[in-house]
Amino acid sequence: MDTPNADYDSVWKQAIELYWPDFTEFFLLEQWGGRPAPESRDQELAKCSRDGQMGLFRVDKLLGAPGIDGRPCLWHIEIQAARQRGFAERMFVCQYRLYDHFQLPMRSIAILGDRSPTWRPSRFELAAGDTRMTFDFETIKLRDFEGSLVALLLSENVFAWLVVAHLFTQRTRREPLRRAIVKEKLLTGLRTCGWARKKFRDVSDLIDRMMALPLPLQAELEAQQEIFDGRREMAWKYLWQERAEQRGVERGEAKGEAIGEARGEARGEARGEARGRLESMRSMICAQLELRFGQLDASARQKVMSASPDELQRWCQAVLTARTIDEVF
């Protein structure tokens, strides 16, 4: 059974348009705050495209939005899922052609979704005599998140989940059955995020499209998800409420621990934050286990609640590929 080609490009571009503040917070470590939402400038690209030695001029994503200083700025974003010779030069050509057309400062960002650990283009240079030109652009290497899968699965940021989906899509490019198992776990796990219904549906659709499956496996997965959307509707609402309550507990702990001297405050906040993370991880594992395998018995729940952080991290990853609850533990 052949695995269909994954849809990386359109999924990433649509996610960037829909959830731009999540993008800047997750990848650029910048809070978007009250700045206006970005405006797509993709349709204007045809005005400044032309043929040349680099081929037809193409840009994956072009947005108009204020920069950090609040001034008008263009954001050029390229999504590259495979190594490409001359990629840095392509980024440079895009940059100067766009500037020539729009006459605006531009932030160039490359999302590298390839599997190579060493391919990290971020600079293009030209030199002739004493004349030199250096073009640096921002690079986001998705492979760098391989060691942070547990933290990503505990995140409520859209792009944390898309990174996990991207990495597992690559891992399973010749394993349709394994991809189906992981995809089902991810779609089920989204129900623990506490998002509004539209956001939940949006992200489910993005992951569904990225992790393409052969038609028989896709039909089986859709049937399973319909069960969760129907019979498990009340469970989904309960998990959403539980997650919200947990966040409230964490905030309360942090405030309570903050009373005292400066050193005491630091130690108290650290203890409160650590306990909050631990409880969040336990709640998420229990929720995913119940959504997949049914109500947990007292023994299994107690095992999760008394587990060490290392055990919880192992189980959090095991939930993605386990066929039975025994395979998790």
Verbal overview:
The chain folds into two domains: 9-144, no CATH class; 177-328, no CATH class. Mean pLDDT is 80; it is low at 51-56, 231-240 and 258-270. It contains 13 helices and seven strands. The protein has a five-stranded mixed β-sheet with strand order 1-2-3-4-7, sandwiched between helices. Strand 5 and strand 6 form a beta hairpin. It has helices spanning 9-18, 20-27, 87-102, 149-153, 158-171, 176-189, 197-210, 215-230, 233-257, 262-293, 298-305, 309-318, 325-328; strands spanning 39-40, 61-64, 74-80, 106-112, 123-128, 131-136, 138-141. It is α/β, with parallel strands linked by helices and 329 residues long. It is elongated, with a radius of gyration of 23 Å.
Helix share of residues?
40-55%
Largest sheet: 5 strands, mixed
Mean pLDDT across the residues is: 80
Q: Number of helical segments?
A: 13
Global shape: elongated
Query: Taking strands numbered 1, 2, ... along the chain, how are they ordered across the largest sheet?
Result: 1-2-3-4-7
Q: What is the succession of H and E elements?
A: HHEEEHEEEEHHHHHHHHHH
- Into how many domains do the coordinates divide? 2
The secondary-structure class comes to alpha/beta
Instruction: Determine Rg (CA atoms, Å).
Output: 23 Å
